[in-house]
Amino acid sequence: MASNLTIDADRLWSSIMASAEIGKGSRGGLRRLALEDADKEMREVFARWVASSGYTLRVDRMGSMFARREGREPGLAPVLIGSHLDTQAAGGRFDGILGVLAGLEVLRTLDAAGVETRRPIEVVNWTNEEGARFVPPMVASLAFAGKETVEWALARPDKEGTTLGSELARIGFAGPVPVGGREIDAYFELHIEQGPKLDAAGVPVGIVTGGFPTRGMRIEVRGETAHVGPTPMPRRRNALVGAAHVAVAIDEIGWRQAPSEGKSTAARLDLSPNLPGIISERATLYCDMRHPEADVLAAMEAEVDVAVADCARRSRCEIEVAEKWGFGGFAFDPGLIGLIRSASASLGHTTMDLKSEAGHDAYHMVAVCPSAMIFAPCRGGITHNEAEDMSKADMVPSANVLLHAVLARADR
Amino acid sequence: MASNLTIDADRLWSSIMASAEIGKGSRGGLRRLALEDADKEMREVFARWVASSGYTLRVDRMGSMFARREGREPGLAPVLIGSHLDTQAAGGRFDGILGVLAGLEVLRTLDAAGVETRRPIEVVNWTNEEGARFVPPMVASLAFAGKETVEWALARPDKEGTTLGSELARIGFAGPVPVGGREIDAYFELHIEQGPKLDAAGVPVGIVTGGFPTRGMRIEVRGETAHVGPTPMPRRRNALVGAAHVAVAIDEIGWRQAPSEGKSTAARLDLSPNLPGIISERATLYCDMRHPEADVLAAMEAEVDVAVADCARRSRCEIEVAEKWGFGGFAFDPGLIGLIRSASASLGHTTMDLKSEAGHDAYHMVAVCPSAMIFAPCRGGITHNEAEDMSKADMVPSANVLLHAVLARADR
């Protein structure tokens, strides 16, 4: 196999810059929430790119788009490359997008060089990876892995109560293809690191060994409505105050574990009635905790229970952890990691082994097939922010590593 | 004048119970936000009651409804009785409603007894007293008193950006009558206490001597969006956490003054983007502080400034008190208070002098004419809550005091 094969950096960069024009945010980034009009437009552009390069496109019932370059043996399970084209509400130009468009660039590079592969190679754009519009994030790969039903996933509502399924139909991406249930040989995902390590160390390629153990939780606070004026302090049960105590406690738990890379976030707070003249009776707080060591994460989680009891006492509200979920805490496939490591070595790139601290569709694909991730540097670690940035030079090494790792696997 | 004249308690109670059917909340109270369809329906019912009793109805440009019973000398400035028919998002059946419908009952009682008065008497239903839909509360009496222009008041938006003026037009209550600018002889407002004192002491009539000094403030918190996962704790500037620190501090300031009847409330919190996967960059917190002594309130306010600086340091956000407003801290008219006191005495009712801790349209009417308020007991002090309650027996004494105080003034 041609070990001097390289992606066309200008072509990939111009694809990413074309994407950066669709759903532009007010500060140079992107606001391309899943299944909104900008996402529809990006999907249509991607579909045109796929068609003009001669690949077949299949859209499944979750709206995930699979572009396929045929292999010499079409009956073999394909190698899959993927990520997502949706963004956060105030997101960057690279998060997810790099992975999908680098996948497309891999296919185009193979065409330009006249390289055939034994196995088919597919590139997927997963629907609603970010979860910025429909909760949970990574919902399409979740359904692909059979962890939830398609019906459940299609019924996820946004804040206005509009379902994912109805929005897919509205924008014309409710495809006919069954979700999952077919053999995939391997899954590769290239992504910006979304942390500062590679950029700080000047290392171009991150080899992702697994996912940070992560716990999410929904905390419910119940108080009682009352007038903000005459109601004596000892009679108040202000759900906003109850939730504020919890948010501060959650933040402090994260700070105590900061030296060992722990994090915790009070991320979203919904209040009712949330009006100036009336004390709120209900608050829902969504929290997120991460730590590289599962036992430390469990200890952080136990601290939340203690804090919740204390916050309830201080605010005179009822507070409970109503729901918990988790991901991460697994290892990616050693075989694929080996392919990434040797591709990096043969291309002469230094690498750093690290764990992913963010969730990715690859987390669910681990349950489907051997899976792995490659990280590219991300300027200053800034992400989920319109200022998210990388240079073309930051992008090229990891995209070439993806090319060669995929190529090696596809000829297996 | 007939000192044995009394209101028809059954008629007044049945009016209030008819109102309690319009915009019923899920838990026995009312959800009749200003200018929503239920408010429209209540206004139409009120207009029918006014017409069927033979009073003239005039609606001003702010949608405030003035029912007029003519006096022997129609050229004299009228005595005005008023309050509001709109409610909180989860409000009670009496807050505001008692005052308007007791005003109507005063007119009907005079008719039934064939009593003429020298001055006209008018009853007003003020638009958007609660401020639950359009901020600020008491916006119609604010404009009536000339403290803001009608144009400014009509442009107030609700959370969806719909203006008060367009909603008035939609429900057919954008009246032609100029707002304010005419002489009013005196203003009386009967209201439930919205605090526990009368109920606890078993005293049927509260004589309101003035308003608690009150300060409201809008606090702006600016952080930065970032991924909830990989972003190291020392790089985070979570606006939700900044606002949570402030909310806890505001609550604690209120607790420190609780023994001397001080209160403070973190009442409303708006966050952006407020999503599970991204740290919020912006928070707006609305706070409210009240204390019977103006100098203590000023000290509480100074504590906020200290707390804000501390919270900014702890959350690494920029935090500022962006806007302040105030009301209360005045005394009601001694002449009208004297009329209320002698009416209570001649009817044999015990009274308690107290200050209003909630805002009322009477606060703005102080700038227009001699004004005063009467309080009726409110079960357990529960208000801005669907469980707000009073009995018919709780209602009768204060309504009769209103009748006789108004009658005395109208014959002046």
- For the record, the CATH class of the largest domain in chain A is Alpha Beta
Q: Which pair of chains forms the biggest interface, and how many residues does each contribute?
A: A-B, 73 and 74 residues
Domain count of chain A: 2
Overall geometry of chain A: globular
The fraction of residues in strands of chain A falls at 15-25%
CATH H-level superfamily title of the largest domain in chain A: Zn peptidases
Described by strand count, sense and barrel closure, the largest sheet of chain A is: 8 strands, mixed
* Mean of pLDDT of chain A: 96
The secondary-structure class of chain A comes to alpha/beta
Tally of strands of chain A: 12
- What is the count of helical runs of chain A? 12
Q: Note poorly predicted spans of chain A.
A: none
Q: What do these coordinates show?
A:
Two copies of one chain form a homodimer. The first copy, chain A, has 412 residues and is of the alpha/beta class. Chain A has two domains: 9-212 and 329-410, Zn peptidases (Aminopeptidase, 3-Layer(aba) Sandwich), CATH 3.40.630.10; 214-327, Alpha-Beta Plaits. Chain A contains twelve helices and twelve strands. The first copy, chain A, has helices at residues 9-19, 37-52, 97-112, 139-144, 150-154, 164-171, 197-201, 239-256, 294-315, 334-347, 361-365, 392-410; strands spanning 56-59, 65-69, 79-83, 121-125, 186-192, 205-211, 214-222, 263-272, 282-290, 318-327, 351-356, 371-376. In chain A, the strands form two sheets. Chain A has an eight-stranded mixed β-sheet. In chain A, strands 8-9-7-10 form a four-stranded antiparallel β-sheet, covered by helices on one side. The longest helix of chain A is centred in the C-terminal third of the chain and has 22 residues, at 294-315. Chain A is globular and about 80 Å long. At the A-B interface, helix 8, strand 8 and strand 9 of A face helix 8, strand 8 and strand 9 of B.
